[in-house]
Design a protein that fits this description.
Strand content: under 5%
Distance between the termini: 11 Å
Structural class: mainly alpha
Oligomer: single chain
Number of domains: 1
Radius of gyration: 17 Å
């Protein structure tokens, strides 16, 4: 039985997620270079590494077709939208939310859903 190839919607969503990851890395660089104690620096770097590894893990699981990963992404997108609605968001954060929403929508298109379901078999 031939496995279905990844639909364009999933590929585009993955590209958007990698773009979000790149934005995250760019955003944390100034934070990590702020003057402060060595403890602040180490804890900042440690937190950044943990978050980066989690993001890479989720993107990789989505790339492999893990349905739970796309559902988790959707939940995180909803939480981010709610959080942004009740707080001040700068333009970069709004761009991040838009990219996250678009990626989530693409991952739940009919062709994407069929591909994720075919990966379960």
């Amino acid at each position: 039985m031939k496995k279905k190839s990844r639909p364009n919607e999933v590929s585009i969503a993955l590209a958007l997620l990698w773009t979000l990851f790149a934005i995250y890395i760019i955003k944390i660089i100034p934070i990590l270079t702020e003057p402060g104690s060595i403890f602040d620096f180490i804890s900042g770097v440690g937190f950044a590494i943990i978050i980066s590894l989690i993001l890479i893990f989720f993107i990789e699981m989505i790339r492999r077709g893990e349905n739970w990963a796309r559902i988790t992404l959707l939940v995180l997108a909803i939480i981010s939208i709610i959080n942004t609605a009740f707080t001040y968001a700068n333009p970069l954060e709004i761009i991040e939310i838009v990219l996250l929403v678009i990626a989530s929508i693409l991952l739940f298109q009919k062709s994407s859903s069929k591909w994720f379901m075919s990966k379960k078999k």
